[in-house]
Amino acid sequence: MRKLLALSSALVLGMTAMVSANDGLKGLIDDPNQWAIQTGDYSNQRYSTLDQINKDNVGNLQVAWTFSTGVLRGHEGSPPVIGNVMYVHTPFPNIVYALDLANDGKIIWKYEPKQDPDVIPVMCCDTVNRGVAYADGKIFLHQADTKLVALDAETGAEVWSVMNGDAAIGETNTATVLPVGDKVIVGISGGEFGVRGHVTAYSIADGSQVWRAYSMGPDSDILVDPEKTTHLGKPVGADSGTNTWEGDQWKIGGGTTWGWYSYDPDENLVYYGTGNPSTWNPAQRPGDNRWSMTIMARDADTGIAKWFYQMTPHDEWDFDGINEMILTEQEIDGVERKLLTHFDRNGLGYTLDRVTGELLVAEKFDPAVNWTTGVDMDPDSSTYGRPAVVAEYSTEQNGEDVNSTGICPAALGTKDQQPAAYSPQTELFYVPTNHVCMDYEPFRVSYTAGQPYVGATLAMYPAPDSHGGMGNFIAWNGKTGQIEWSLPEQFSVWSGALATAGNVVFYGTLEGYLKAVDATTGEELYKFKTPSGIIGNVMTYTYDGKQYIGILSGVGGWAGIGLAAGLTNPNDGLGAVGGYAALSDYTALGGQLTVFALPN
Amino acid sequence: MRKLLALSSALVLGMTAMVSANDGLKGLIDDPNQWAIQTGDYSNQRYSTLDQINKDNVGNLQVAWTFSTGVLRGHEGSPPVIGNVMYVHTPFPNIVYALDLANDGKIIWKYEPKQDPDVIPVMCCDTVNRGVAYADGKIFLHQADTKLVALDAETGAEVWSVMNGDAAIGETNTATVLPVGDKVIVGISGGEFGVRGHVTAYSIADGSQVWRAYSMGPDSDILVDPEKTTHLGKPVGADSGTNTWEGDQWKIGGGTTWGWYSYDPDENLVYYGTGNPSTWNPAQRPGDNRWSMTIMARDADTGIAKWFYQMTPHDEWDFDGINEMILTEQEIDGVERKLLTHFDRNGLGYTLDRVTGELLVAEKFDPAVNWTTGVDMDPDSSTYGRPAVVAEYSTEQNGEDVNSTGICPAALGTKDQQPAAYSPQTELFYVPTNHVCMDYEPFRVSYTAGQPYVGATLAMYPAPDSHGGMGNFIAWNGKTGQIEWSLPEQFSVWSGALATAGNVVFYGTLEGYLKAVDATTGEELYKFKTPSGIIGNVMTYTYDGKQYIGILSGVGGWAGIGLAAGLTNPNDGLGAVGGYAALSDYTALGGQLTVFALPN
Ligand SMILES: O=C(O)c1cc(C(=O)O)c2c(n1)C(=O)C(=O)c1cc(C(=O)O)[nH]c1-2
Ligand SMILES: O=C(O)c1cc(C(=O)O)c2c(n1)C(=O)C(=O)c1cc(C(=O)O)[nH]c1-2
């Protein structure tokens, strides 16, 4: 605890007393001087009330210090700051460094797991990791091989560890974990290997398992109350996790849970989305494939689902529904409502009532989206809540071994894992997006445990008849479902955004720029070329009263897989290699933290 | 040539006409806006007449842009700038990038050799490379596996290549090459593998071999004229390269040539030093072991030696004599003389007349040096020019299997490859030094081609009874042989220095700091923590009228071998692992270029 003395004494007391692990963490999250959680806060707003750096002075930003992680390939996530210590993680092999902010980032401790490199080929989209979490004096690392480790935050010593999955059957991890109360909530990857997705809660104290909820399967597996758990306002009924599947396909049904988690403490609900159903060949899995592609609201203590909303029934494009749920309070039609906004891979920006699961808005957040004409918003309609699929772009209707061309967005969606930010000041969402379309040819594939179970060949390219680039950074009004402004980018914006009370929004680009724009107008105020392409998320904190901005560089992720894994065949990397080939003209592999500040 | 349009038209004309490759390069070297050669100029002064950044404003320096090389481990050397293009190289696998300065470092071309990784274990001291050279529209890369490649500077296409050595017998390369006239001068590494050192001149036009001079062997191999080539003013006589060796030991005699080369165009002499005799066990090679540990002056066109000076006859400590020769014109005793100053691994700073080879000064540049009481400067003495060895620290006299303790400096010398700078303004040399001592236990070893041929066990530690650190950055008066000031550093200063007309001297530290100090007083004016430990050499150039400072980060080299190669046994890395173990508290592996400038 010595390292935390810089915290206000109230906080220190709170943490020492440790009535509940959550109380301490909540205090840290509420303190804008810390970056206590990957998502900025439990609401996933990635909004900081710090305003020393503001739209008038951000143009003077300078690099304050830097740190090389010693690992190449894609660096997602961000480094939490607790007190005077910053916790930097790396992609596989998932090293964790505790850096002393009082001493130019001197290394207080380093934790280097010994992981079997056999896990690398079963990671679909680079060896990324979205960062560590903090609670109760512990740092939580969820390794690529699904080992969940709790480290003493002060010493780096292992307190406990538990295996969450089995890499031999394709279960891996890239996500961070969400500490809630006395538990950490943990997801799983492997949708391209026929993994059946699950979310698990472990005890912060000792790592024992508290509950596990699968994305599909019997009611006892998916933790629903058939009468009380709702979908669009109606009870899901018995066997909802199996009765939209043919035979045992649900057992290898995908719906993995590798995205971002949010939490509403008042409702005690955890929110997250599930991924694509396996395989990518829709003909092999008739039915709606519930509960893949679904927003889920679950009780944090029991795991029992309060409501579901399946965005893309019977996916035909790999539009994983795992993107973050951003929780806001906004007025709609004169009523202050507890909202959940979600920018889905499928290209629709959804706003729901997060208490009831009522669907309020579903609009395209990229005009290029063409696979659907939109969502049926009529509660009395038999297709209520379902997107209307355009036959030309239906890989199911076109059939196996037919190349469906010109589908927008591409499989990596109008937005992938790169998290958006929300500013309560402007009431706008700032969304890093992909502006990419694809050709998609499904083919029959058979399942072998631990082997790729994809069943489609893809090609990707910039959205045609547009600005020629592969991305936009947009401001979105979640209540009206409208784009306020859109900044064209040459490549997908694969980095997470940060909004601040200084009326500035930050994001990174795949070429390696950190950019700052005016939160109201989108005007570019600052840019700096960091060592490598950015797929990390911008964070902010103060040290000694001064505001800093931090970002990890290190090109990779699905978009950067060509560079990261050294692939050159255009169809490799599930089609991303060809699409993003020009990236190698701008940047090379890296793994660096760059920290910015205003001049003294 | 399009890329070079920013050069003055006179230069462009000169280069297009290309009367001699050297004329074009000399013009570029004389233009301070370029960084046309690794060593700053042919004199190895590493002095720039640029003075936009000066001692009054250097404190405002900012990071302008950065570039990750995509490779980890030790990054030595620096990136040449020719016109608007910067050429960045990497350690093994020795990638070369041409970066567009007009476009934030966009990659114009990338050259990635395919090298057999089997060369890595036959590199003694990390997989470093000291950078590419430019001449005649070509970029010269001397790869780890000793392949010398000429690339079209504009396209990166291979123009020609030639193998300079054979990695199967331990011949490798880490050095840059020296373009002189219509030739490139090329050295070899492998003193720890019983390689017999040689220097070779290849035609710039087509890579054909012009001459090769071995460090030891018959007169025809070592390119001497027994009557005209002198040692301390006297002809070397016949068989000087074999008659101080027992039997055939000279055939595996070491004296490799992996350091920096300098050139005096008026004398047409190339200067360099030779490394340690093999093995490190002195008992196995009675005699002076000529011409290991020798400063050599050779005619650039024929390779014939004009003079030699052997600094450490019969080495007992691995004090390779390869450090750079810095050529200056200074007044001594009222006479303007053409001097050569050299800071040797053995801890002595030498000044010689570079035309005649006359020894003028030989003084300790670290007071900790204890293996010698000094050099006999009496021309009439029978031991003229020889260092007097202190018996206690003589590993020869103490004998095989005896641990000689407390020898200063350690095997990596008071200075290793890290090059010093010289300012004609202050007439001072700025020397990055090691402040490290050692225990050294020689043992009998037998030679097997391609296998380590070391024969000694070492331990290293900071110089006792001093400031506790392992390095100093010093200012040295080469005429008097005195230290003007000395800045203590926690670790050896393994980075090359740069002196500028702004009265500023720059250097990097193993923790990763770039530092700027007042050239007159040594006062620290600026420091910045770059991503990784610095063993590269600081360079400067202008783009669009603005002065920039560039430095490669990436910890490694012999000092950083523990981190670079992941070694933890203290005796590993020839004793460096234990000595520099604390480095891992400060930095991790990296490979980044950081470019600095004043604010706009
Ligand atoms: O289905 C899965 O289990 C799964 C896992 C992951 C992952 O763990 O990174 C990605 C995806 N799918 C995926 O579809 C995807 O677009 C993707 C992008 C990235 C990334 O980090 O850039 N990961 C993943
Ligand atoms: O004898 C040789 O051939 C040889 C080669 C090298 C090299 O090529 O780097 C080094 C050394 N010796 C050596 O003695 C030494 O101290 C050293 C340091 C370094 C470095 O780059 O940090 N290389 C070498």
From TrEMBL, chains A, B:
It comes from the Bacteria. Pfam families: PQQ. Its cofactor is pyrroloquinoline quinone. CDD domains: PQQ_MDH (cd10278). Residues 1-21 form the signal peptide. Keywords: Metal-binding, Oxidoreductase, PQQ, Signal. PROSITE patterns: BACTERIAL_PQQ_2. Residues 35-361, 493-549 form the Pyrrolo-quinoline quinone repeat domain. Belongs to the bacterial PQQ dehydrogenase family. PANTHER family: QUINOPROTEIN ALCOHOL DEHYDROGENASE (CYTOCHROME C), QUINOPROTEIN GLUCOSE DEHYDROGENASE. This is Methanol/ethanol family PQQ-dependent dehydrogenase. It comes from Hoeflea ulvae.
